[in-house]
Amino acid sequence: MNYANTQTERDLHDAFLDEAAAHVKYKLFSQKAADEGLREIADAYDRIAGEELGHAEMWLREMGGVSDTRNNLKQSISGEMADYKTSYPNFAHNARSEGFDELADRFSMTGAVEEGHAQLFGDMLDRLESGGYESAREDIDWRCRNCGHVTTQHQMPGYCPLCGYDRRYMRREMCGN
């Protein structure tokens, strides 16, 4: 579906960002609850964080944000370069101009990490394009944690072919277990 230049496109983008942010936030909240010995709350946060990640994945896929590995690497390089060349320098400048020097330094250091990410993705793209990777396309057994059905495919199925449960219920079968 082509959502280009529509309110729906903007809504999908916002939904993706909201769900991705909620995933990270709830993972951190889970860690805090666990640190405080509140295991039941930590477990609930973990479960909901996983669901938020599933929502973010759904919206990103709906927007066409997941492609083949070559294009995913190109997209990743572009994003990381924008972060280290524009976003983090601007964040650091703003923080420093408002007197938050330590935060400005952390923004600058994070930008340097982002530059390293761009370099790594670039190196992987170069290696991929020069034939330096072999695709591991072995058959893998996937077991549904809901119904126990085992299916054999190269990659995790999007859902259980027997009961229809979402891919989050599929686990790689290890040594016949």
In short:
63% of the residues lie in helices and 7% in strands. It has helices spanning 7-35, 39-62, 69-97, 101-129; strands spanning 140-144, 150-153, 170-172. The chain has a three-stranded antiparallel sheet with strand order 2-1-3, with no helix packed on it.
Stretches where pLDDT falls below 50 for ≥5 residues? none
Give the termini separation. Answer: 40 Å
Q: Give the strand content.
A: 5-15%
Strand order of the largest sheet: 2-1-3
Quick one: overall form?
globular
The residue-averaged pLDDT reads 92
Order of helices and strands: HHHHEEE
Helix vs. strand class: mainly alpha
Most strands sheet: 3 strands, antiparallel
Characteristics of this structure?
4 helices, mainly alpha, 3 strands, three-stranded antiparallel β-sheet, 177 residues, globular
Protein model, in words:
The protein has 177 residues and is mainly alpha-helical. The protein has four helices and three strands. The chain has helices at residues 7-35, 39-62, 69-97, 101-129; strands at residues 140-144, 150-153, 170-172. Helix 1 (7-35) runs antiparallel to helix 2 (39-62) and helix 3 (69-97) packs antiparallel against helix 4.
